């Protein structure tokens, strides 16, 4: 069975919602207008329970099926936009300079609303579906805020599923893998405190630029010499702040960077080695290192059994040949990882065609994906909560 007929019928209406949300992007936790739009729609559809203010501005809608198995599965969408100025020139382009739906969360929210409408109309399942609309996916850990607000326990959510659009994968296709699918995007700031002086008298200084330059190279040993070659790790120094002019050796230098890993073991190893290498090299030259290492969201790890369920639903909608079941992981981060730490589940990519890359000012969500997204959510819920 391909796309559900009703989902195809909903495509026009859901595209309008999507374009409205696209015109009115909101950042991080400040998604008040988006959350109230979601709340209004869920109530209009006759969803049984709508709870707002979970994880500050998150919304959860509960739709109960005909049968009362007592089981509940969670379907999650993110609502927030990015601090970026849109240059698509589309009629529905952002009305707010410096804010833009450049990651397609407008599409995610709209597709889950479309699924909510369908599920509230049909209720062909045994148990309940929790429709999760979260704030602050983009660096604000909104998923964690909802989890810490007791969302899983409060609604009795047993499994949780997420979806992200992916430019470059054709519309009508899905991609997923078991295990790590998105990276842990950790970050570090290393301040090297040396001793400044005249550039003509380096022997009277402890030169933090010289030390920092060695550190930039040596950190690559983590990828080249410390981790198993079959385990992914990316280390990038992305900023090097030091000095003022030609003839002064400064007192200090600061390196900024990111570490991306696909397993918690590699993640732990990478952090330990960043600290050891920084302290070792800086200390060897008689300077001091202050290391600020910040762990952001965990690795997004798909659970085996739930990944099979996701593949089953996607294959039903798009055809088995249109589901890549062993896609390469992405080294970007995704805070749905926090939900997958608490409950089994799976995160899937839905093709979004030839649009510009995510987080690019030319990006726009391709509405042709909407009927696939709605059909996937609906069939996943109906299969997991079969009568
Ligand atoms: Ni995103």
What would your notes on this structure say?
The chain has an 8-stranded mixed beta sheet, sandwiched between helices. The protein has a 4-stranded antiparallel beta sheet with strand order 10-12-8-13, with helices on one face. It is elongated. The mean pLDDT is 96. By secondary structure, it is an alpha/beta fold. The protein has 2 domains: 5-178 and 303-384, 3-Layer(aba) Sandwich (Aminopeptidase); 184-294, 2-Layer Sandwich (Alpha-Beta Plaits). The chain contains 11 helices and 16 strands. It binds nickel (II) ion. The site of nickel (II) ion has 4 residues, from loops.
Strand order of the largest sheet: 1-2-4-3-5-16-6-15
Q: Low-confidence runs (pLDDT<50, min 5 residues)?
A: none
Question: Which homologous superfamily in CATH is the superfamily of the largest domain?
Answer: Zn peptidases
Order of helices and strands: HHEEEHEHHEEEEEHHEEEHEEHEHEH
Describe the largest sheet: 8 strands, mixed
Kindly report the average pLDDT value: 96
Helix content: 25-40%
Structural class: alpha/beta
Q: Count the strands?
A: 16
Query: What is the name of the CATH architecture of the largest domain?
Result: 3-Layer(aba) Sandwich
How much of the sequence lies in strands comes to 25-35%
The CATH C-level name of the largest domain is: Alpha Beta
**What is the CATH topology descriptor of the largest domain?**
Aminopeptidase
Rg of Cα set? 24 Å
Number of helices: 11
Q: What coarse outline follows from CA principal-axis ratios? A: elongated
